[in-house]
Specification:
The protein is 76% helix and 0% strand. By secondary structure, it is mainly α. Among the domains are: 36 residues, no CATH class; 37 residues. The longest helix is centred in the first third of the chain and has 47 residues. The chain is flat. The two termini are 99 Å apart. The relative contact order is 0.02. Keywords: Coiled coil. One of its GO terms (cellular component) is cytoplasmic microtubule. InterPro entries: Enkurin_domain-protein.
Length: 200
């Protein structure tokens, strides 16, 4: 019984904290009988789940690629068979296309070396007239005109009526604009003090 009593005497929170200091919140939870969360274990589980998801995605993508390749290879085989049937006709068509391409190259080559056409007197006069008309057009200073429009659109300040002027003057106190009295008294005291010291 005596040992139990001695043990209970040290059971106050201050003494218990001094005898068995805690290293943090998690240790306090353990002492209270609460099992703290194991964040490391949870993080490992999350990582494992993500890795499994990524593996599943990769497997699905590979399956899709294989399916596409199978479809494409089937299409290619079909077209190869069709091309082998039509082989004789395509060769003759290719020969005709080659002849056409050679003739078109020759014609473009000749066009490059052809001289540019010289304009007639009438065309030159027409160009000159167009240039003069474009130069004689009235030049408008859009920046200044826009600036004046903005200035004119601004609302003009209204001239205050005599009643408004009287109200404004009534709001001001009578000694508005004058030197405050405490400054005048201080100045008078300083000047008197200086005169008195000067006489001594």
């Amino acid at each position: 019984m005596a040992t139990w009593r001695v043990g209970r005497t040290n059971d106050s929170s201050g003494v218990a904290a001094a005898l068995r200091p805690s290293t943090g919140y998690r240790e306090d939870m353990v002492r209270r009988g609460v099992k703290p969360r194991d964040f490391v274990k949870e993080n490992r589980k999350r990582i494992q789940l993500k890795q499994q998801e990524q593996k599943m995605k990769l497997i699905e993508e590979e399956e899709k690629k294989r399916a596409k390749e199978a479809v494409n290879s089937f299409k290619i085989k079909r077209f190869e068979r069709a091309a082998s049937r039509m082989g004789s006709t395509t060769q003759s068509e290719d020969a005709m296309m080659d002849n056409r391409s050679v003739s078109s190259r020759y014609s473009t080559h000749r066009r490059e070396y052809n001289k540019a056409r010289v304009p007639t007197q009438e065309e030159l006069k027409e160009r000159e007239r167009q240039l003069k008309s474009s130069q004689n057009r009235q030049r408008i200073d859009f920046v200044n005109s826009n600036a004046w429009e903005v200035i004119n659109k601004q609302p003009k300040k209204s001239i205050p009526s005599p009643a408004e002027i009287w109200d404004e003057e009534a709001r001001r106190h009578q000694s508005y604009g004058e030197v405050p009295g405490y400054l005048r008294t201080r100045k008078a005291a300083v000047s008197y003090y200086l005169q008195f010291n000067h006489l001594i």
